[in-house]
Amino acid sequence: MMKYIIIAVIILLAAITVGFLFRKKHSAEIERLEQLKLQIQNKPILEELTKVKQLNMNGQTEEMFERWRNIWTEVMDVHIPKIDASLFDAEDAIDRFKFGKASSIEKDIEARIENVDQQMNDILVELEELIGSEEKNRSEMDLMKEQYRQARKNLLAHQHSYGAAAGPLEKKLESFTPLFNEYDELTEQGNYLEAREIVMNLAVEGDYVFSLIDDIPPLLTDVQSKIPSYINELRNGQREMESQSYYLNHLELTDQLNAMEDELAVLKQNIAELNIAEAKEEAELMKDKIDSFYELLEKEVKAKHYVDQYKVETGRQLEIVSAKQMLWRKSVQLSSKVIRFQRAKLQSRSIASTNWKNCSAASIY
User: Fold this and answer.
1) Whole-angstrom distance between the N-terminal and C-terminal Cα of the chain?
2) Phi and psi for 229 in degrees, rounded to 5?
3) For residues 120 and 112, what is the distance between their CA atoms, to the nearest angstrom?
4) Nearest to 232 by CA among 260, 210, 251
5) Reported pTM
6) Most CB atoms closer than 10 Å: which of 98, 265, 339, 360?
7) Running DSSP on this structure, what letter comes out for residue 245?
8) What's CA 142's distance to the chain center, in Å?
9) How far apart are CA 194 and CA 320, in angstroms?
10) For 172-208, what is each residue's pLDDT tens digit?
11) Which residues, including other chains, have CB under 8 Å from residue 145's CB and lie 6 or more apart?
């Protein structure tokens, strides 16, 4: 009998221990959920909404403000109280050791908290975008308008430096004015996000147009003055060198310089049409080619100087070699005569010996 009592007590103690362990686990989960709820309540929604009130409360800004405030009010007045009530129900179920019910309530609470937390985070992101757009718009437009004023000033003060491109550039700059006006209207109406699009479009167009204002004068100077003067210098140098007996036909300078002059006319037209990128690249290639022409002419000068420097000595050496060759030929001719004379002498002796032998033989007989 005692044995069964002990077993029952052990089972009861084990059940109580397990129950308290489960209760501790659920209590920790309730505490975690309570902290998540407090984090939602402590999100700086109200502080950010206060910043929005400092903007132009019209149009898009007013609509977004009302939507954010309604969502925040609903969360604080409806969802948070429901979460509080569910937390109380979960604690009551834990106290009654109804852990299955507590688990179900905890899952429901976590889902509600995640949904509310996502709504709050979305509001913060949109608030940051709106407030950030207003700040960025203001600073970037101030810079844009200053660059615009400086560009117009440069164009008007140095119009001759832009040649035929001055007219198209003026039209490009004039196109900024309606966009500035549209930006001001959208800002006054509180449509900061739409105004942000205007600013971004203006930034792209501004980078392009303002770079043209800076790049065209030096490029036009290259195309209209520097490169043609280099070509004339090369032509004059070519004529002068040819008059001094330089042979330059293999360089084909005349044809290449003519082709470059034709290309300059094309580059001027490209600049007038504001097609600057290709014109800049071609102008740099032409300057590199001109540098190579100067190097080729310099090499020709050095080569002729070398030839002139050693021409006399080379001629003298050639005369010595020629004299030696003549002496050698005469020596060869003399040797040939001696050899022929010796051969003839030997042939005469041979004939005489043969005749003597024939006469001796005839006398014997």
Assistant:
1) 182
2) -70, -35
3) 12
4) 260
5) 0.63
6) 98
7) T
8) 27
9) 95
10) 999 999 999 999 998 888 888 888 899 999 999 999 9
11) 180
